[in-house]
């Protein structure tokens, strides 16, 4: 979607639209290299790029993909750039959510809250006994 929208963006006279379209096609190529290297078997360095991208932490991938998707929108704010970069941005958001980790259960949070409350009460009673 990013590549097709980028190609469609390049069919214009406005230089900012052309720059945004070229950037979107570059985004699509980088996403293919990082996420689906089997689609780029004819490129020699595809496996090396994919291996390097796999070593990145999820929050780094999230920042990279979201940053790549925001630049064409800042260059040319049109529906084509918004819809074309939506998938790349969504990929970054999903990596960001995976970086946050698994959701905890309510029982463990309740225990932690109860322990903190008990510690606060003990500190309060200790302070009151120290004043008396």
Provide a short characterization of the protein structure.
This protein is mostly helical and 132 residues long. Helix content is 80%, strand content 0%.
Give the radius of gyration: 24 Å
- Termini separation comes to 72 Å
Shape summary: elongated
Q: Helix count?
A: 6
User: Which percent bin holds the helix content?
Assistant: over 70%
Category by helix and strand content? mainly alpha
Polypeptide structure, described:
It contains six helices and no strands. By secondary structure, the chain is mostly helical. The protein has two domains: 76 residues, no CATH class; 51 residues. The longest helix is centred in the last third of the chain and has 26 residues. It is elongated. The mean pLDDT is 81.
Which terms would index this structure?
132 residues, elongated, Calcium channel flower, transmembrane
Annotate the secondary structure layout:
Blueprint: H1 2-9, H2 15-35, H3 46-55, H4 58-75, H5 79-100, H6 106-131
Family: Belongs to the calcium channel flower family.
Subcellular location: Endomembrane system
Organism: Phalacrocorax carbo
């Amino acid at each position: 979607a990013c590549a097709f929208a980028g190609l469609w963006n390049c069919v214009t006279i406005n230089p900012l639209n052309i720059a945004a379209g070229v950037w979107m096609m570059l985004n699509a190529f980088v996403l293919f290299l990082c996420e689906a290297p089997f689609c780029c078997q004819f490129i020699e360095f595809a496996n090396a790029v994919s291996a390097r991208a796999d070593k990145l932490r999820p929050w780094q991938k999230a920042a990279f993909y979201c940053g790549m998707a925001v630049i064409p929108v800042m260059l040319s704010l049109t529906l084509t750039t918004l819809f074309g970069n939506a998938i790349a941005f969504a990929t970054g958001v999903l990596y960001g959510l995976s970086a946050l980790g698994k959701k905890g259960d309510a029982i463990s949070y309740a225990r932690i809250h109860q322990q903190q409350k008990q510690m606060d009460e003990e500190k309060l009673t200790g302070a009151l006994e120290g004043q008396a």
